[in-house]
Amino acid sequence: MTASAAARAAELRRLIEEHNQRYYQEAAPTISDREYDELYRELLDLEQQHPELASADSPTQKVGGAPLTAFSQVTHRAPMLSLDNTYSEEELAEFYRRLQRLLPDEKIPVVIEPKVDGVAVSLLYENGKLKYAATRGDGTVGDDITQNVRTIRSVPLVLKGNAPTLLEIRGEVYMEKRGFAQLNEARIKEGLPPFANPRNSAAGSLKQLDPSITAQRPLGVVLYGTGAVEGAELSRHSELFPLLKKLGLNTAERWWIADSEEDILSAIHELDRIRRDFVYETDGAVVKVDSFKQREALGFTAKSPRWAIAYKYAAERVQTRLHDIFIQVGRTGVLTPVAALEPVLVSGSTVARATLHNAEEIQRKDIRIGDIVVLEKAGEVIPAVVGVRADLRVGSEREFQMPTNCPECGSTVQKDEAQVATRCVNAQCPAQLRRRIEHFASRGAMDIEGFGEAMVTQLVSKGLVGDVADLYSLDAAKLGSLERVGDKSIRNLLEAVRASKGRPLWRLLFGIGILHVGVTSSRALASHFRSIERLMNSAAEELQQIPDVGEVVGASIHAFFQERGNRNVFERLAAAGVRMVDDAPAPVADAAASPFAATTWVITGTLSQPREEIAETIIARGGKVSGSVSKKTSYLLAGEDAGSKLEKAKKLGVRVIDEAGFKKMLD
Length: 667
What we know:
The protein is of the alpha+beta class. The chain folds into six domains: 3-63, Helix hairpin bin (Helix Hairpins), CATH 1.10.287.610; 74-312, DNA ligase/mRNA capping enzyme (D-amino Acid Aminotransferase, Chain A, domain 1), CATH 3.30.470.30; 317-405, CATH 2.40.50.140; 430-500, 5' to 3' exonuclease, C-terminal subdomain (DNA polymerase, domain 1); 505-575, DNA polymerase, domain 1 (Orthogonal Bundle), CATH 1.10.150.20; 591-666, BRCT domain (Rossmann fold). The longest helix is centred in the first third of the chain and has 23 residues, at 3-25.
């Protein structure tokens, strides 16, 4: 190694960290992304040519390491608390009045800062070096996600300046809004399903077992609080922000101090006006007592600190014109009306379409073509028409009528009164065919990567695929006739089709798209019959007696297999080599004595493994997996963002465990 190589490597590291600081902490980059990438590539090449130059503190170490086999657990030095929240300005004002009643005759400054819509994390630095990063978990114990967090450029591996001997710092990992849009655009082009929203995408990225995947995601971090601290004297929360910036840590762009109800409300209004300019999603404001001494005096309730509250903004509502209502045909033939809108900006993105669900919903809201409608994003993600400005009507508006014929194939449609749905009953309808093939190839079913909407549309329109069995007769010549499909893509597509032949029986049953048959009933059917042949020849009475199937689903399955065309599809799948028998792992020898024996589980939230894999683990140990919470549920396995199932489990007294508890049961 030459002295000049070592000197250049040191200079490149300094430059890259400096540009990271300007980009992430100061939001004022001085070079283009391309120029940054050139510096980064030069350093990476130098370290590869001279391995002795490699350092754990180098920016190049943020590219990810070897895949992890599982997440270990970390006990937080100080608990990670959750906050009470409100959507009401009056309740927010009452929060401050309560502080004043608890601390009479004291001035009580509070800090107002953005509520970042991300994933809560805790970083621990010892003597300025990152020791570990962890999720919130249950507030006491979280998952060790150090390898994944090391890949985030805005998380320094070594702090700048005179760092505290120990600093446990809390914040939110987010996915950049622009990066999220670009990521989804790339996934759609590859035929992959787009991610639902930046927050869930960030959560999934941090749960990857392969850090190199996390490294490819546009993640950032905002830090806003502390746990355990040694070697630094802080008496107020407002003193934390300049300290973090001095150490090279990323904090919120804006924050306010207020000591009255009026100033608090003024701050949250100002934040609401500017928050859409931030690179990350926000869904509210957090109000915290500034003085640590006052926080100590105020104390805690059983769940939350008395000195802080989260105020959540109501979903933004905008008005726009409804130009038309068109029909989308799903894989089961259901006709769904969709609003074609005058494009309008809502919650940071332009919306031109929104589902109207069904004809009854349109009638209930009295939505007419030509109306000015009120639009909002549910959870700031899914656009929805929530109302109509009937007072602005001019008389030219038209009532909507569901078509009597399918807009795709022209077949007569039927009203399904039980489901409030209108359905095209032509099984050969091109729209249904496209949706059925997309569903069959989806990750939750047969997991055939590359067969997304664009690819399937080409296959159907060119007549190369007439049902799901035709996927297994595709070859290089047929795929080569499609637009923008090269040799490498052809090899990948054919390999994905070949690999899918060995999928478990329940995936095949779910993927085939029998009306009313979901993942839970597919598992029950595979477990009971163990082969497609036995299932096809079963009586309706036997089907209806199977747990998680029942009368309606059983009748639907029986009717499905009475159709000769459906049986023919399975015969051709079998001839192509698709597995037709249950290959689920046999229960372990001591399943009867395991803690899973005779238990029923519901799985919800964001977890480190796909739910299907977790379910198979439970089933192999003598347990059952259901799709809904009831009094018969033994355990709810809850990950991040567990939602309504968690609330129902608590109401019913169902035992709730997190992933750490689940792993202990496995051990």
